[in-house]
Amino acid sequence: MSRPRGADALAAALRRAGVKRVFTLSGNHVMPVFDAALDAGLELIHTRHEAACVHMADAWARITGEPGIALVTGGPGHANAVAALYTARMADSAVVLLSGHAPASELGKGAFQEMAQADIAAPLAKAAWVCAGAESVGADVAKALRLARSARPGPVHLSIPVDHLEASVDARIPGDDDVRGEVDSAFLDASLARLREARKPLILCGPAAATRRGRSQLAALESALGIPAIAMESPRGIADPSLGRFNAVLHDADRVLLLGKRLDFTLKFGRGLSADMLEPKNGATYDYLRAIDALVARGRGMRPVRSGWLDEVRAAIAFRPREWDTLAADPMHPVQALRPLQALLDAHPDSVLVSDGGEFGQWAQACLSAPHRVINGAAGAIGMAIPFACAARLALPQAPIVAASGDGAFGFHIAEIDTAVRYKLPFVAIVGNDARWNAEYQIQLRAYGEARAKGCELLPTRYDRVTQAFGGFGEHVTGASQVLAAARRAQASGLPACIDVAITGAPAPSY
After folding, report:
1. 108 falls in which pLDDT band (50, 70, 90)?
2. Domain that holds residue 71
3. How far apart are CA 52 and CA 39, in angstroms?
4. I want to staple 405 with a disulfide (CB 3.0 to 4.6 A). Which of 125, 273, 276, 356 is the partner?
5. Are 307 and 376 members of one domain?
6. Is residue 479 in a domain?
7. Residue 269 sits in a domain of what CATH number?
8. Same domain for 419 and 359
9. Model confidence, pTM
């Protein structure tokens, strides 16, 4: 029997860590890994664009709690993938991007697709490096997995020269260490005491607390302490449409504990807030999910705070204007296009709401809720609805999946409909079609006036027909009364589906 290669060590390291599925796009520098995956039993989900690989790995990590693995080739393949790392980084998502690389033996000589890959990825990752030798491949992959999950989770990048993947190596793979970060017990004790002294305390947490598991932790925290605990993950920050009138109660708060949440643009850098802000010294890397559990344990030994503040905050977050119930029906408003889809999401305990960026995505976040919610996040990027939905289907084979996207954003990765058809990954995408980049158009209206609102127009493309051309299900809807029936037909088709909805281009919700 021939000795294993670096590629075999890579595949073995993934399997040892429990990884069974890799999101990938083929290319010269990773063909040895494709070969090794056959013997290792790794499932390769072969996409149409490298950024989609990372978006799928990102959604997989958020939904399952496992690291999401993206595998791409070197040079331009790596460059395509790197852009999507930013969305994962801002979502605290445990993604590992494995990139093939020009041969180490040819570096500096003008090798094919030679590129300083780790340097390019470094600003967007927790760690990024180039594997130093064939014997290091397995250990480096194990290290990347460990770093992605440790302390504050986030993406990690490893570039592996193709000659290291092809070379013979020792098959041994190092063991995995404990990835849980330490928490500052003294800080938590002091913060808890100060929160309990406050009249209107709040706990604000980073985006990893917005996953299903994270929201469960926050519910336990609220129950134990009697103090409102809120995850923030939206690029709209305190104007997050899913948080109703949160802005108002935040301005009323007198003491706020920040766990995995920086005093950044989403909180307007603290401008206008009178609250005393409590933040760990190492807040940028703090294991805030573990800190939440530690606070819950501490709260079990004391009485919860009893006041009307918790109910006041919950009511503010749940608030939606009554005017939404009586909107004119022609042309269709985003509220009317989206609210009927709640029936699909309410039909299963593991349903998934995917929401892309832009104004239509903001309306989706205001109108719809689900046990699993995967949004574009604080990065504010757009275009990942289809990759997110594909990963959600792989993670949750039986759950209803509704993916909301504006027409502009839907076009970013529309070729991934082909991926969804090939792998039989059904979901229902609803595309709000107003034939323009509406978020930017609304900025133009506010800043320059209607006469100078130019350059954001799109064609009224029938995205349902594009989806049909890829082999999916498509239907065009012009009236609110048609939405739910069309969505049910889409779901019953068992195919990746697009409901193209003609809407008015409304600005994002405000309260």
Report:
1. confident
2. 6-166
3. 25
4. 356
5. no
6. yes
7. 3.40.50.1220
8. yes
9. 0.95
